[in-house]
């Protein structure tokens, strides 16, 4: 799934400084193909007819628009429990050991959806640590499952260096409704936005981003009229 690890000399310094790092060209062609076919298969399972690759973005956009949230969640479960996700997770466990010289294990697996004109699956500013309180030294990975991720299709952005704030305990729950993602936004977010630079995480389909549990980050609205949906795989590990 992952290409052979090259020595990544710039990693530690940049990760410590910025709170995130993008490993370029690390996901194998096989993994990329399997992730795309997983999307095709999973959405076909919840649909009456086969969903082709070129239909995926519009398919999810239409389901979201028609509030078919339970069906979308069913596809989400299929994907999170798939062999390909488990394999990528397994390799990221080995990879994390290589990076930090510490042992890691499964925390969660899944993916984030960004859908045009919908806020339901979109995260406002948050630290991952807010969702995993009590767990120390988690690591978080994100990778594209289909297309490039950039500002135009609402890729996540980070406040570079904000992990140095440590865990911010004063947070507000701004969750929209029962079937939307939980939003835990730091009370001092305006201050943080002034203090740290916002960076958009641009990912090619073969890249993987790692980020620190305390980096402040968020989803962004989809601007593109062509690429209406963004699919990003997520693997979270703990020690
Ligand atoms: O990519 C996104 O929309 C945000 C995802 C996120 O918050 C995460 O991966 O922890
Ligand atoms: Fe997050």
Topology (SSEs and partners):
Elements: H1 11-18, E1 20-23, H2 29-46, H3 56-65, H4 69-80, H5 83-100, E2 105-115, E3 126-127, E4 139-144, E5 157-160, E6 171-173, E7 184-186, H6 189-195, E8 197-200, E9 208-211, E10 216-218, E11 229-238
Antiparallel strand pairs: 1-9, 2-11, 3-10, 4-9, 4-11, 5-8, 5-10, 6-7
Bound molecules: 2-oxoglutaric acid and fe (ii) ion.
Plain-language structure description:
This protein has 239 residues and is an alpha+beta fold. It has one domain (10-238): Jelly Rolls. 31% of the residues lie in helices and 23% in strands. The strands form 3 sheets. A 5-stranded antiparallel sheet has the order 1-9-4-11-2. A 4-stranded antiparallel sheet has the order 3-10-5-8. Helix 2 (29-46) runs antiparallel to helix 4 (69-80). It is globular, with a radius of gyration of 17 Å. The protein starts with 10 loop residues before the first helix and ends with a strand. The chain binds 2-oxoglutaric acid and fe (ii) ion. 2-oxoglutaric acid binds at residues 112, 114, 123, 128, 140, 142, 156, 217, 219, 232, 234. 2-oxoglutaric acid is lined by residues 112, 114, 123, 128, 140, 142, 156, 217, 219, 232, 234.
Order of helices and strands: HEHHHHEEEEEEHEEEE
| Percent helix | 25-40%
For the record, the CATH architecture stands as: Sandwich
Q: What is the SS-derived class? A: alpha+beta
Total discrete domains: 1
CATH superfamily: q2cbj1_9rhob like domain
User: Which CATH class is shown?
Assistant: Mainly Beta
Query: Unreliable segments (pLDDT under 50, ≥5 consecutive)?
Result: none
Percentage of residues in DSSP E strands: 15-25%
N-to-C CA distance: 22 Å
Radius of gyration: 17 Å
Strand order of the largest sheet: 1-9-4-11-2
What's the total count of β strands?
A: 11
CATH topology: Jelly Rolls
Task: Count every helix, treating DSSP H or I runs of 4 or more residues as helices.
Answer: 6
Shape: globular
- Major pleated sheet: 5 strands, antiparallel
